[in-house]
Amino acid sequence: MNKKILIAIIVLVIAAVALVGYELWYLHKVHSSFENYYAFRGCTRLVSRTDTEGVCQTASGQTMKIVQFQNRWYLNGDLPHCWFFGRCF
Asked: What is the pLDDT of residue 28?
């Protein structure tokens, strides 16, 4: 019985680590390019674009501004917090 519980715990830990790893990889991919972030946010029409920012429109008509910050793409006003020795989260 104890061996089964230990195996179950190990399987759950491995599954949790795999899930966290996948989420981190996915977020890195989403923020890595304008096109990926554009698709992630559900944009259907590009309104304007420069090298460091762009404005897009969703199917519902909502417009949003996407900006580049430290070589990653974010919604304007939704940038990561940089407070821990210059690291941004």
From this structure: 92
Give the list of residues 6+ apart from residue 46 with CB closer than 8 angstroms, or none: 38, 54, 55, 56, 57
Q: For residue 58, which of 74, 47, 69, 73 has the smallest C-alpha distance?
A: 47
Residue 61 C-beta-side C-alpha neighbours within 13 Å:
0
Range of the domain at 34: 2-88
Question: Nearest 5°: CA angle at 76, between 71 and 80?
Answer: 60
Bridge partner residues of 65 (DSSP): 55
Q: Is 0.90 surpassed by the pTM of this model?
A: no
